[in-house]
Amino acid sequence: MDIAQVSKRSGVPASALRYYEKVGLIASVSEKGERRKFPDAVFDRLALIALGQGAGLSLNDIRSMLTPEGEPDIDRQLLAAKADELDATVKRLRAMSKGLRHAAQCPAPNHAACPSFQKLLSAAASGALERRWGKRSLFRSSS
């Protein structure tokens, strides 16, 4: 199947297919100088690449888990670490969502009078959020 057909069927731009080939994620079966042709198995590889990218893996991480023969060689430790990272992100996003919902529905006359909002501001100012989430505080200078 030529590159245009693979691109159309997979939804992956031809430029991305050429890049994936260049970095060793997929391989064409065409001769030098011919239009790129790929075996039908390329769709399985593209699905694995999409799955890995969707989970936040880099292309290098994904490549390290694909054998030259096209078989997956999954690094379970890397996947477990990525799952832990995603769990931490979900936890952080849930906490942010809860805080936003509270701020949106707070019965206090204004946010300055809301004890929950004041606790959140105090935690942010003290760096508790930075320590908890491992990010730079918004209240500190960038120097």
Which key terms come to mind for this protein?
143 residues; mainly alpha; 59% helix; disordered C terminus
Topology overview:
Layout: H1 3-10, H2 14-22, H3 42-54, H4 59-64, H5 76-105, H6 115-126, H7 128-133
Give a description of the structure:
This protein is mostly helical. The chain contains 7 helices and no strands. The protein has helices at residues 3-10, 14-22, 42-54, 59-64, 76-105, 115-126, 128-133.
Beta-strand residue percentage = under 5%
**From N to C, what is the helix and strand string?**
HHHHHHH
Q: Identify low-pLDDT runs.
A: 137-143
Helix content: 55-70%
Tally of DSSP β-strands: 0
User: What is the number of helical segments per DSSP (H or I, 4+ residues)?
Assistant: 7
Cα end-to-end separation: 54 Å
Average pLDDT over all residues = 83
What is the 3D shape? Answer: elongated
Instruction: Give the biggest beta sheet.
Output: none
Give a nutshell description of this structure.
The protein is mainly alpha-helical and about 140 residues long. Helix content is about 60%, strand content about 0%.
